[in-house]
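Review form for a predicted model. The reviewer records the input and the model, then writes brief findings.
Reviewer: anonymous (R2)
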Amino acid sequence: MLHRFHILFLSFLCPMLAIGMSACKKQDKSELLINQAKEAAAKQEFQKAKLLIDSIRILYPDDYHKIQKGRHALYEVELGEQKRNRYYCDSVLKIRQADFPQKQKNFTYQQNTAIESVGYYVHNEHVFHGNNTQRCYLQFKTDNEGRYFLTSYYCNTYPIEHSKIRLVAPDGSYCESLEVPNDGALNYRFRDDNLYYEIVCFNQKKLNKLMEFAHLHKDDNLKVLLVGKRKHQYPLRNKDLQIMLDGMELSFVLSDIHRLLEESRLSQAKIQYLKQRIEQVDSTTKKLSR
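Model under review:
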């Protein structure tokens, strides 16, 4: 009788011990995963840390407390990641801001507040004055965000109604912009006595890699071909070509500064959000533990 009781007791106890041991192993596994995630985050291996923490939700889909611990750990990992991102942005931002004065020194900031919501940096040689009023040339300008434009100024005794520009290299290769129609605003034409004037502004998309072509052939004698109802060709002065290339350098700096400022602000906003989420998880955990 006693022997049978021992057998029944052991048959009941063994499964319970197995379940208890399994639960302990699972609990140890969740803590291990969190510790491994913290170690990965300390090495700035943030994606690895996130995957480790995500394993807790997979292993314990119905264990609220373990999921809460995992969520807390995940927020801390993401917080560390955003702090790293902000530090990187701020570090590179200082470098690009230090580059700005040198790149900008030959450019003047212009803005007609009556008709323009943003201003533009224009090279001092191309600021509209006497020596540019009666010639054909390309004027480069860039706004504060590094978005650049190339404006074609045409002046002659006959109209051509041009809507495209083409850069032609000595070997015959060329690059042509997309068409920009006359709109009477940014792109317009007028006549003054016996001279015909045409102004056509090309944004980055309409330029169609024209600036890249200019940089590729910066040591060549390029020609500008204006394409419209009639065509007009003239040599691109070395000085004007260098102004275009210098303008590109300035636009790169301005674009980097704008992008880094935006990314730094975004990281700061995420940092504040994650701190709030961590506080909320801590508060919820404390309430449940009472």
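Findings: The helical segments are 2-42, 46-59, 64-104, 204-207, 210-216, 238-289.
Further findings: The radius of gyration is 33 Å.
Recommendation: see findings above.
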